[in-house]
Specification:
single chain; 426 residues; alpha/beta; eight-stranded parallel barrel; 19 helices; binds the ligand O=C([C@H](O)CO)[C@H](O)[C@H](O)COP(=O)(O)O; methyltransferase; hexulose-6-phosphate synthase activity; orotidine-5'-phosphate decarboxylase activity; methyltransferase activity
Length: 426
Amino acid sequence: METKLQVALDITELNTALEIAEQTVKGGVDWIEAGTPLIKSSGLKAVQQLKQKHPDKKIIADMKTMDTGSLEVEIASKKGADIISILGTAADQTIKDAVQKSNEYGTQIMTDLINTKNPVQRAKQLKNLGTDIILVHTGIDQQMAGANPLDTLKEITNNITNTQIAVAGGLNKQTAKQAAKTADIIIVGGAITRSSNIQKSTREIKKAIKNTKQTTKQTTKQKQTTKQKIQEITTCNLADALNRKGIIPIQQVSGEKTFGRALTVKTMNGDWSKPVQAIDKAQKGDIIVIDASKGNLAVWGELATKSAINNNINGVIINGGIRDIKEIKKLKYPAWATHTTPAAGEPKGNGEIGTEIQIGPTTIKTGDYILADQNGAIAIKKQKINYAINKAKLIKENEDRVRSQIQQGKTLSKAIELKKWENQQR
Ligand SMILES: O=C([C@H](O)CO)[C@H](O)[C@H](O)COP(=O)(O)O
């Protein structure tokens, strides 16, 4: 992922903050943060107005939540925040509740390590709690005492893999360039918002952080490895790895293998309103997973498919009906369903986007990972993805060994020493 530049609007006057945001967008900023001082002075309408003016930008609500994680994530998500910051020193339950609520809204959680006594240990805990981004942060007051985030950033990026790392704390063009060698998101406040030419300083910092990622950075290699592993494994390997947990009882209708994060939709038989609205809510690379109570009326068809392709959505899984099969197959779009039918229902608007759903024996939450291919589909809990993929990869490698023995003439029972297995199963 290209390193992102996030401007922190630590401004107390809303109109000034909006003007500065405008300038940073012209300068090429990627993400826009409603800073804590802005939220405390103007309220969450600051988030709302930033989202209304810049719908194509990720908007961060720097809430620095310490308690009532679910409530604060809900109010910020409803105002349009894409990412909400929670203090890493908050209770684990607060963070779990925040993650749970963010999954429902399809938003993300950034946990802030500001003033954390043992940042590496806490960062590992935060990753296991499901946080999406870990922020290495030297607060303004700590900066006044001469501190900066770069040393802690090095410790964190050497110990935390497969989680986006952000960094903030008095960064300027030079230190931002340094930080960008390992961090995924560079957060800059004063060096942009207090500069005499906001657009120019934004552009200069954006240029400084571009293409600086260390090629040897473990998470980049790790992410590429994860991506490679996904390409090599099948849902069969994954089913074995997960002891048959996470299976979604569904048949492939079109397309090839697909992988991505779930955006869940609950609807009724034939009610295609929420499924279609989900196309607008889904992030690039998501898979829309629809529970239509295994109904026999279609909640998806050719037009929804073409709209999903436009929004870079990786596929659709429907516990219910789909139609326009010929057209969807022609588009080679990854689609799974329980029924194909010529008949669609009505867009009544029943149900909810982002809520937890159950298909057969499997509960699926927004943010869970989905791997689906010709065999079917499997949901993987966010916290288990690395374990699941690594174990499935090992199973695949064992199978490859048996495959080569069979190619050399051994029978399957000999290649897997079946007799020994039988004894073990008794
Ligand atoms: O989070 C921040 C600070 O705690 C005030 O809310 C700042 O947004 C963050 O430190 C980035 O601002 P600069 O340090 O001025 O770059």
